[in-house]
Amino acid sequence: MTPSLYQFPLLTPFPSLIHFVSGRHGGVSEGELGTLNLGFRVADNPQHVTENRRRLAASLGIAADQLVFPAQTHSARVQVVKADTSIEDLADTDALITQITGRCICVMSADCTPILLYDPVKQAVGAVHAGWRGTVSKILTHTVQAMQEHFGTQPAHLLVGIGPSISPEMYEVGQEVLEAVKQAYGSTQGLITRENGVGKGFFNLWEANRQQLLELGVPVASIEVSGICTYQQSDRFFSARKSANRAGRFAAGIMLQ
User: DSSP code of 95?
Assistant: First the structure.
C-alpha cells in the first residue's frame, strides 16, 4: 500500500515543485500510530518510522535522505536550509525556508497547522508548523520576513497552502490561549468563537494564520485553506487531541526540483 498523500491545487501547476501533505495510511506502524507515523518522538519503533519515511520519499520520487525535518518545539524559530545544514542546526526550529533544489523541507503535525509557501518569482519555498503557540508568536509572519530578507521574496508573489489541522469547530482552548490571542492580535474577534465568559472558547488557527498573510500583503486569492479538520477526520490524519496524545505524526513538505 502506498502512502496517502494530498496536495494543494494552488501549488500543483508548477513542474519545478514537489509538495505533499501525508495522511495516516500506507506505512508499517501499528495501533494509534498506524500506519504512516513519521515522528521518532512518539514511542514508535524507530525501524517503522525509518521505513515510513522511506515509503514517503519513494512515493515522491526522491530518496529518504532528501527529506529535511526540524526538531519542532512550538518555537518561533525559522531556519534557512543550505547545502551544508546539519541536524544540529535544526534544533528548536518550527519553520524551514530554502532556495536550494533537491531538499524537501518538511514539518510534522497532529492537529497543529502545517503551512507551505512558494515564491515562483525568486524560486524559494517554506514549511511552517503553527500550533497555538506558534500562531500567537506569529511564526508565519517571521517566516515570510525571513524569505524577504534572505531571498528577496515579495509577499505579493507568494502562494500559500494552509493544511489540515484541528478546526475552529473542535479546538476548544482555555484562558491562557485566549489571553495570548488577544495580546498577539489586539482582539479575539473572528479568531475566538463561542467564548463562554468563564475562560473557554474555540480558536480558529486557520483564520489567525490567514490574517498574518493578509497583513503582510499576500493576496487573498493566493492563500488556500484546506479546511480539513484532523480531529473530525482522524481516520485520515493523526489527531493528538482525539487520541489523548497517543497519535503519530503526519507531515507537509515542499521541494524545488
Answer: E
Hey, which bits of the chain come out as E strands?
A: 5-6, 17-22, 67-68, 78-81, 95-98, 104-109, 113-119, 124-130, 159-162, 172-173, 192-193, 201-203, 223-225, 250-256
128 pairs with which residues across the strands?
95, 115
pLDDT digits (tens, 9 = 90+) for 77-117: 999 999 999 999 999 999 999 999 999 999 999 999 999 99
**8 class by beta-carbon count within 10 Å (0-12 exposed, 13-18 middle, 19+ buried):** buried
Question: In Å, how far are 39, 96, 109, 110, 245 from 249, measured between CA atoms?
Answer: 5, 18, 5, 5, 11
pLDDT given at position 195: 86
pTM of the entire predicted model? 0.98
Going by pLDDT thresholds of 50, 70 and 90, the confidence category of residue 198 is confident
How many C-beta atoms lie closer than 10 Å to residue 87's C-beta? 10
The set of residues, in sequence order, having a beta carbon less than 8 Å from that of 158 and lying 6+ positions away, is 117, 118, 119, 144, 147, 213, 218, 222
pLDDT at 205: 98
Instruction: Please give the order of strands across the beta sheet that includes 104-109.
Output: 5-6, 17-22, 250-256, 104-109, 67-68
Name beta bridge partners: 118.
Answer: 125, 159
